[in-house]
Amino acid sequence: MKNKVLFIVTIIVVFLLGLLASSIVNRKSEAKYKYVPQVNIAENEPRNEVWGENFPLEYQSSLQTLDTSFASMQGGSATRDVLEEDPRLVILFAGYGFSKDYNQGRGHAYAIEDVHNTLRTGAPTSKEDGPMPATCWTCKGPDVPRLMNEKGIAEFYGGTWAETVSEVVNPIGCADCHDPKSMKLRISRPALVEAFDAMGKDINQATHNEMRSLVCAQCHVEYYFDKKLPGKEGVPYLKFPWKNGMTVENMEDYYDNLEFSDWTHKLSKAPMLKAQHPGYETFKTGVHADRGVSCADCHMPYKSEGGQKFTDHHIQSPLNNTSNACQVCHREESSKLIANVYERQRKATENRLKLEDLLVKAHLEAKKCWDLGATEEQMKPILTDIRHGQWRWDYSAAAHGASFHAPVETARVIGSGLVIAQEARVKLARLLADLGHNKPIEMPDISTKEKAQKYIGLDVEKLQADKEEFKRTLLPKWLDEAKAREAKMPINAVSSTKK
Amino acid sequence: MSLNKKILPPKTSRWRTTAVFFIAVIIGLGLFMARESKIYSYMSDSPQACVNCHVMTPVYNSWMHSSHREWANCNDCHVPHDNVFNKYYFKAKDGLYHASVFTARAEPDVIKTKEASQEVVQNNCIRCHVQQVTQVKYDGWIEGHKENRTGRQCWSCHKNVPHGTVRGLTTIKYNIAPIPTDPEGLVIPAWMDKQIRDD
Fold it and tell me: Where is the chain membrane-spanning (chain B) (predicted)?
């Protein structure tokens, strides 16, 4: 009898323990499946909408970069024709693509479309035609790391812009910055890694906070195409000129030692440098970087929706979002914060415009010298000054936000640019006098974009007509190829959620 | 031996085999549950142990992003430290209560501390911040400092420390306890690392 009771008690205990074990297993599974991914994201998955299946809040906020309604004093997401606003830039960029067409960038969602539209990419008549290499696509979307993985880094750079039109169709998005498995930040462009190597640093040592700026520094930096790399001769290999450091002088020395120029100026024949957009370099010299602020803190601040806190992927000017971007740290009225930013921008612009004036005159005076029979030897120091002066101007101007990111450094750079440009003009005045022209040269009318472009000999109407033809005929064909290619790419839906 | 005789039927009994079998099952299930529930981890001070229950993820996440991450783990605040026996007694009492509620699926969306736990947390706040809290000079220049100090809980004012403003299960969508932010490893894809190193 006692044994029977023990037996029954034992059975009950086993049953209850079984229930408890089952409960533990169920609860652990519940934890695992509380987050149920809709799709398994492949390595180098370029389609942002596929990532968006799993992360709708981030994806939907990133789509808001389609909004172009905001314009600040010198930025925002609205389209602005920089050449129309300031026709002097046509003269400064004579002989280069930026004299044809120079718009302020819109939001990330327009990255692909704006590359198709700009006159700088020309109107290729075939996949082997056109003025631009595939390297120009490097920062336009997540298809680029996919292609680099498939073809090789140098092999990607070695292609043409035109042949890559049907390959790069997804605008800047998730795979550019995130690891598909852990969602941690990740560098997807080799140029930044190689630049760190050149500086003797290992980018893998970066902290999470540093990564929140470095993912932006893959693209918002100064760069150039090196066609002389050993083993890769002729390939326009994307490089950052950071070997000697990131300052305007360090990079200038680097370029001078290489005898590198982006183009030869059409009027002055100076070997010119184009500062692409040294946003990261200028930011690093400012007080916000000094205090440990990262790019994402202001341009992608945290947002709260339905009790959930997430990084707002609507990347935009913080001036359009001061409550989340600025007022987290700066307990000031929004209008005062905006006024503070505008003050710095306005004051930097004052001197930047003076420098532009000097540089335009320098180019025109140099052209006059050539016309009067100046020799290479006579012109060389002058052209070097023009090169250095414009490099400093462009370093401050092309970084767009530099006057707020680093107002002290910007003032210093423009100040030294003014000195160099004025030195050039002093030399030019002496040379003009030696050549028998002992009075100021006549300045052409460059008061509008059209007049300036006509003066430097650009047939913009033809360029625009060619572009429209390209967009009407070849572009849709190549985009259809892309559509067909992407239709074959699988979407790895998780089986438990298959429709 | 006498214990054996009491529990196990005599060797001659036909129940003995069955009894041995079921006792083995009990022991096996016990070991299985210990492993599945990671019961051994509760002996440690690791915060990861608390995330064994996924309802603790929002609490863990907010702690991990707070200033306390570098200095204090869960037990430093939520378990008494006056003596070792009280520590483990309180831990066991609280733990069994939590486990019971969790097993019964009775956990609330927003977890609030009971009075006994509040007392423990308050004492631990003071234990670490005793220098700030008992600064004598404050009595001299802050009116009512002593009454404010002794008559209220720390979080009457420090409401966000360390678990944030918005609490509860709805604050997390993905229930992923975060990976430590500065791990060893690459910040570039493996294929890129290979290509660059090969050059």
Answer: 15-34
Of A78, A56, A75, the C-alpha closest to A67 is: A78
Query: How many residues would you count in chain B?
Result: 199
| Within-domain flag for B184 | no
In a domain, B63, yes or no: yes
Asked whether residue B80 is assigned to any structural domain, the reply reads: yes
- Residue A231: its chain B contacts at CB < 8 A? 199
Q: Which residues of B touch A193 (CB under 8 A)?
A: 188, 192, 196
Report which of A350, A365, A213, A361 is spatially closest to residue A281, judged by C-alpha positions: A213
User: Which of A147-171 are b and which e, b meaning 16 or more Cβ less than 10 Å from the residue's Cβ?
Assistant: bbbeeebbebbbbbbbbbbbbbbbb
Domain with residue B141: its CATH number is 1.10.3820.10
Cβ–Cβ under 8 Å, residues A368 and A437 = yes
Neighbouring C-beta atoms of residue B12, cutoff 10 Å: 6
Q: What is the 3-state secondary structure (H, E, C) of B115-164?
A: HHHHHHHHHHHHHHHHHHHCCHHHHHHCCCHHHHHHHCCHHHCCCCCCCC
Cα separations (Å) of A223 from A192, A239, B10, B141?
10, 6, 88, 59
- B/e letters for A248-270, b = 16+ CB within 10 Å, e = fewer, are beebbebbbeeebbbbebbbbbb
pLDDT in tens, A65-112: 999 999 888 888 888 899 999 999 999 999 999 999 999 889 999 999
Residue B150 lies in a domain: yes
Tens of pLDDT, residue by residue over B42-53, are 888 888 788 877
Residues annotated within the binding site of A for heme c are: 108, 136, 139-140, 174, 177-178, 216, 219-220, 288, 295, 298-299, 313, 326, 329-330, 405
Pick from B42, B70, B38: which is nearest to B181 by CA? B70
**Closest alpha carbon within chain A to B164:** A309
Between CA A146 and CA B97 the distance in angstroms is 52
Tokens for A341?
């930013």
pLDDT tens profile B102-154: 888 888 888 888 899 999 999 999 999 988 888 888 888 888 888 888 888 88
Domains in chain B: how many in total? 1
- Token couple for A327: 């007022």
- Angstrom distance (rounded) from CA B98 to CA A196: 50
Question: With an 8 Å Cβ cutoff, is A193 touching chain B?
Answer: yes
Burial B153-184 (b: 16+ CB within 10 A, else e): ebbeeeeebbbbebbebebbbebebeeeeeee
Give the model confidence (pLDDT) of A322-346 as tens digits: 999 999 999 999 999 999 999 999 9
Sign of torsion, CA A197 A199 A205 A211?
A: negative
Q: What is the ipTM of this complex?
A: 0.77
Residues of chain A with pLDDT under 50: 498-499
* Structural domain boundaries, residue B169: 47-174
User: String of b and e for A37-48 (b: at least 16 CB within 10 Å)?
Assistant: bbbbbbebbbbb
Distances (CA, A) of A460 to A84, A86, A454, B20: 13, 17, 8, 95
Dmax of chain A from CA atoms? 131
Q: Helices A407-434 & A334-371, crossing angle to 10 degrees?
A: 20
Nearest CA-CA distance, residue B184 and chain A, Å: 8
From the list B22, B36, B171, the residue facing A309 with the nearest CB is: B171
